[in-house]
Every structure is written in structure tokens, then in C-alpha cells.
């Protein structure tokens, strides 16, 4: 289980001692006043106070306003792999469907949380070197303070990288807010900010520990991996103030920087892929820290209903679940059917990532495979069925939000090598094929299964009440359900998941929850595992074709994990992918729900508008982002 960096006492202490100074708000007459009861003279008198302040920098991530909901889930839709359900005035719908405006509250809450984290980091970066212990403490004390300084520098760089990713040029300050300061600073060019981000993260990597963490705190290799991601964004396409989407003329220098830091990480080999793709997310749902797979993650912990850092992960973005065996959820993150169709049927990521079913109060899966039910398919990685089912997680959860996994770093490596070598080399192919090998279960003994009806039976009256149970065989995750009945017998069944790890044919049992119907039987069969040549990308791809394959691989591997919309923007293809997806869903059904194509405006929606709450106060922000 995870060793929470936020205990009940730490949450309270961090929120009290580290909300040192607020940022500008919509109140034009607001004076800057300390929130803390610590004074400048006695704050950071020992290592524990410095630690509480550093935890406060982390704590800005652990909020519904940031990575518990807004930035992680809402800001990643709508794309070719995920969209929000329904039409309405809710911020989470209007933002996702490209209808957000400067007055949209969620923009301001996310913006404020990121700047809160930056201001807290600025305090730590300034105060730790002023401590007597920083110079005169024991070796252990000094080592601890150096690590905390590195954490604060990394997190300041990370928060700024997110602001630039979402808003482009933004206000920029590297000094903590003090009473009497002018907090109303103007916009700073994003590439000037990137220079400081790179400096912060580079310096952080020199201070942070090398060993794998036992909590969610950052280490040296994670800082380097995240710096590589920042470099790819700095070298990618972004929407400029003149309304054009372009990349910098020296973009390859950023790719070279990414290559350097990726190579540094790979040379140390601190990470590895969990052989089971599904186990990665089951571990997340069960709060099992996996620092060799999950490089950087946000800690969530909610010890009571009104205190803590809670998340919507696994509630907002799981399959529709009725209250009963599992807690109910609100199931807002839909998956377009063309994305499901894009997978190879043997790719185990398809049926685990995409839920083609709902879950009833008994915990049984109900297939969504007829008529227009494909419009209700959802993200499946954090399903209620994998969670702890604890009372404290029936609404909000403690599931960490993983910002980078090792497979992400491997795919970044492939992208960098392809770009810098004007085509894929052996390193690029190996990196992608490692990810694909795991996706097809190549390192797991056994395979997936299929289930076939043998005897249709009689007397069944409702397909939803017929349950297909699969037991034995050495594997897991296989699931099938009755789709239709005919003349009282089972007419068709659908495989919801083929599972993996089956070394022998499992037993299939058919029962009826309402006691109606009898005699139906089914048998399972093992599926043939793909060969290495079928799994690997074809050799000899051009630079352009390899990039397209890589872009698709990132969709298959990382869907629903918060980076798809950002990836499409940095590649300059967000509008293209929305148009492509719209055409594909309309080919399925003219009425297929996909509202973003109507609302999306190229040269506008690649960035968010500066929040009006901010621009009303800060008149040094003299322009709005293009077309808002």
C-alpha cells in the first residue's frame, strides 16, 4: 500500500503553514496578508517546518481544482480518444466541448491553483538557503534540506510548464509574494519561461535523490524524465499571440535536450514495465505504489469527508455503476467507437481501457452492444470493480493521478530518435516495440480467451439477468455477457474482455439472477497469441510514417491519462483529429454524439482564455488569447 505523503496531520499543517501569501484575486482592493501564524522571523526554524512547507508545494496538485479533476480529466477532452457526455452549462462540459470562455470559473480555479503552487515553491526556494541549518546543520539535516530545495525547484518548473501548456504566454515571477509587492505583472513570452523551467528542473535533478521513492515525492530520474517532456512541448507546435500555430525555429535543440535527459535515465535503468497492462491500473486503484512503472504521480488522500485531498478519479471517469456491490459513479468520460475500432483485437489494452458495459447493483456487467449503446462506452481503466470499496472512497477516491508512466517515456524516446535522425533508428523501434510487447501480453504466460454458446437453453426472459461466469484456467479479467435472447434462449453473447494469462481452458457457467431460464451452456477456447513479427512495428518506415504510428501508439497506450489533447496540440493536428473522428462517428450513425467538431475553432482552442477574474484585476495583461 502507498505510504501517503499527506497524513491527516500533514494535510492540516501544510495547508496552514504553507499558504503563506495569496495571489491576486477578483477583489480589486485585496491586500496581501500572510495566512500563516508563523512570522518571517521564526518560519523554517527546523527541518520539520521546511518539510511542511515543501509538502505545501506538493499539496497544490492534490486538489479537485488541479489534478483531482480539472487538469487531469476535463482539460484532456474532447479528442479522438475521449469526450465528455451530454450538453449543458456545466464547466466540465463547456470546456471539453470547446465552449469555455474567459468567465468560465474552472479556468480561474485551475489557474489559481498552479500559481498557488508556484508562490509556495518560491517561498521554499528563498527560505531554505537562509536557514542556519542549511549551512551549519548536521550532514543529515543539510542533505534533507538540499532535497527539499530540489523538490521546490522542480515543482515550480512543473507548475509553470503546465501554465504555458494551457495558456501560452503568462505572468511570470520567481520571487515570493510579499505585502506591498506589485502582484499585477504582465505576460511573459513562453520561451523565456521555458528557459527558467529548464533551469529549475536541471538544478533540481542535481539535488534530488537517485533511489526510487517510497512515497509520491519526486526523485532525480523522474525530474529528468519530466524535463524531457517539457523539452518536447517547448519544441512542439503552440498557438502564438498572432493566431498562428508554429514551432520555434530552433525546435531541434529542444529535442536534443530531451534526448540527453532520456538517455541519462535509460543509462541508469531505474524503470521497467509491469508485464501486465491491467495490473498497472489495478495497483493504482488499490493504492499500491509502483515506482518502477509510475514515474511521477500526484498523491491523493482523504481521511474524512471535509478534510484532505480527494480525487474524482474512478468516479467521474469509470464505467457507469449502480450503487450496490460497488459504489455508484457518475461516468462522464465517453470513448468514441472509432477509437475502439482502431485497435488490433489481440491488443489487451482495448478491452481494459474501454468499457463496453455498465455495472449493475449486483456487480454484474451489462453489455452495451446493441442499437446506439456504443455512444455510452466509457473509460475503463479505473473501474469501481478494482477499487478498495472503502467507505471513504464511495464518492471521492484516494487514487493517485499518474502524470508520467515509463511507457510514456519509452514512446517519447522513440519520437525524439525519429525526429533527430530523420527517421526511426534501432533505439526508436526498440522503445515502441517494448510498449507493444507488453500490450499484447508477450511476457505473460498464457493468453486470452473467447467464449462460445454451446446450448441456448430455454425460459430466459431478460438478457440483463443472465450472468456468464468464467473461473479457473490460471488467467484473469476475461468477461462475457448475454447480448440478445431469442425464443427464450440465449441468442448472442459478447466478449467484454478476453483477459490474459490463461494457460488452460477455464470453466464457463451460466446462471440467472431472477431464477428464470435454464439449460444454457457455453465453452471457452484459448486464443492464439500474436507472434513477435505481428506485434512489432514493420521495419523500414519513413520518418513521417513512423511518427504517425507513434502518435497512434500513444493513443492506445495512454488514453484517458491526461495527455492526448496536449499531444495533438504539440503535433499541430488537434483540428485534423477532431475532423477525422467526426467523419468516422457520422459514418456509424448520422446522429452519433460528437459536439466538439461544431464548436472547435482552429487558431483559438489550442489555448484557453486568460480568466476574466484575473484580467479584471491585472490590467498589465493587455491582451486576450487569440479569438476569445
UniProtKB/TrEMBL annotation:
Keywords: Cell outer membrane, Membrane, Signal. Residues 71-232 form the SusD-like N-terminal domain. Residues 1-24 form the signal peptide. Its main location: membrane. The keyword Membrane applies. It is found in: Cell outer membrane. InterPro entries: SusD-like_N, SusD_RagB_dom, TPR-like_helical_dom_sf. Belongs to the SusD family. This is RagB/SusD family nutrient uptake outer membrane protein.
Amino acid at each position: 500500500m502507498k505510504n501517503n505523503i499527506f497524513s491527516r496531520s500533514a494535510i492540516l499543517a501544510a495547508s496552514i503553514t504553507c499558504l503563506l501569501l495569496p495571489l491576486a484575486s477578483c477583489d480589486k482592493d485585496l491586500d496581501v496578508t500572510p495566512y500563516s501564524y508563523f512570522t518571517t522571523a521564526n518560519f523554517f526554524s527546523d527541518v520539520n517546518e521546511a518539510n511542511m512547507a515543501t509538502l505545501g508545494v506538493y499539496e497544490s496538485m492534490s486538489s479537485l481544482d488541479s489534478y483531482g479533476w480539472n487538469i487531469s480529466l476535463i482539460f484532456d477532452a474532447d479528442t479522438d480518444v475521449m469526450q465528455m457526455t451530454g450538453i449543458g452549462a456545466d464547466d466540465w462540459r463547456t470546456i471539453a466541448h470547446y465552449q469555455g470562455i474567459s468567465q468560465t470559473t474552472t479556468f480561474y480555479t485551475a489557474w489559481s491553483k498552479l500559481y498557488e503552487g508556484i508562490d509556495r515553491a518560491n517561498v521554499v526556494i528563498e527560505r531554505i538557503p537562509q536557514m542556519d541549518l542549511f549551512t551549519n546543520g548536521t550532514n543529515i539535516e543539510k542533505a534533507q534540506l538540499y532535497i527539499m530545495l530540489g523538490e521546490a525547484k522542480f515543482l515550480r518548473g512543473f507548475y509553470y510548464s503546465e501554465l504555458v501548456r494551457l495558456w501560452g504566454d503568462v505572468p511570470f515571477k520567481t520571487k515570493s509574494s510579499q505585502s506591498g509587492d506589485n502582484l499585477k505583472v504582465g505576460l511573459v513570452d513562453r520561451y523565456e519561461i521555458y528557459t527558467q523551467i529548464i533551469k529549475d528542473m536541471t538544478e533540481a535533478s542535481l539535488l534530488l535523490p537517485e533511489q526510487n521513492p517510497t512515497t509520491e515525492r519526486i526523485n532525480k530520474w523522474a525530474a529528468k524524465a519530466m524535463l524531457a517532456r517539457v523539452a518536447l512541448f517547448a519544441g512542439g507546435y503552440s498557438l502564438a499571440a498572432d493566431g498562428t500555430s508554429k514551432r520555434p525555429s530552433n525546435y531541434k535543440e529542444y529535442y536534443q535536450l530531451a534526448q540527453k535527459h532520456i538517455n541519462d535515465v535509460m543509462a541508469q535503468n531505474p524503470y521497467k514495465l509491469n508485464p501486465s497492462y491491467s495490473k498497472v491500473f489495478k495497483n493504482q486503484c488499490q493504492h499500491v505504489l509502483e515506482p518502477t512503472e509510475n514515474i511521477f504521480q500526484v498523491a491523493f488522500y482523504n481521511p474524512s469527508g471535509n478534510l484532505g485531498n480527494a480525487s474524482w478519479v474512478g468516479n467521474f471517469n469509470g464505467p457507469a455503476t449502480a450503487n450496490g456491490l460497488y459504489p455508484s459513479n457518475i461516468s462522464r468520460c465517453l470513448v468514441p467507437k472509432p477509437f475502439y475500432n482502431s485497435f488490433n483485437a489481440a491488443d489487451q489494452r482495448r478491452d481494459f481501457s474501454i468499457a463496453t458495459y455498465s455495472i449493475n447493483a449486483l456487480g454484474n456487467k451489462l453489455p452495451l452492444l446493441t442499437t446506439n449503446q456504443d455512444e455510452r462506452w466509457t473509460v475503463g481503466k479505473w473501474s469501481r470493480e478494482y477499487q478498495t470499496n472503502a467507505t471513504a472512497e464511495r464518492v471521492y477516491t484516494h487514487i493517485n493521478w499518474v502524470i508520467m508512466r515509463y511507457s510514456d517515456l519509452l514512446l517519447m524516446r522513440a519520437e525524439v530518435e525519429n525526429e533527430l535522425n530523420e527517421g526511426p533508428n534501432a533505439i526508436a523501434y526498440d522503445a515502441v516495440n517494448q510498449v507493444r510487447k507488453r500490450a499484447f501480453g508477450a511476457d505473460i504466460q498464457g493468453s486470452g480467451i473467447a467464449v462460445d454458446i454451446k446450448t441456448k437453453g430455454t425460459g430466459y426472459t431478460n438478457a440483463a439477468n443472465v450472468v456468464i461466469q468464467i473461473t479457473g484456467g490460471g488467467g484473469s479479467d476475461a468477461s462475457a455477457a448475454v447480448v440478445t435472447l431469442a425464443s427464450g434462449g440465449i441468442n448472442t453473447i459478447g466478449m467484454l474482455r478476453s483477459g490474459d494469462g490463461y494457460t488452460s481452458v477455464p470453466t464457463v457457467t451460466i446462471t440467472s439472477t431472477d431464477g428464470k431460464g435454464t439449460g444454457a451452456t457455453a465453452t471457452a477456447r484459448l486464443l492464439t497469441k500474436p507472434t513477435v513479427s505481428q506485434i512489432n512495428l514493420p521495419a523500414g518506415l519513413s520518418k513521417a510514417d513512423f511518427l504517425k504510428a507513434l502518435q497512434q501508439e500513444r493513443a492506445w497506450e495512454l488514453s484517458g491519462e491526461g495527455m492526448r489533447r496536449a499531444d495533438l496540440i504539440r503535433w499541430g493536428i488537434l483540428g485534423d483529429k477532431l475532423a477525422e473522428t467526426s467523419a468516422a462517428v457520422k459514418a456509424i450513425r448520422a446522429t452519433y454524439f460528437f459536439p466538439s467538431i461544431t464548436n472547435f475553432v482552429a487558431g483559438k482552442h489550442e489555448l484557453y482564455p486568460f480568466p476574466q477574474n484575473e484580467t479584471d484585476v491585472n490590467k498589465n495583461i493587455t491582451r486576450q488569447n487569440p479569438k476569445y
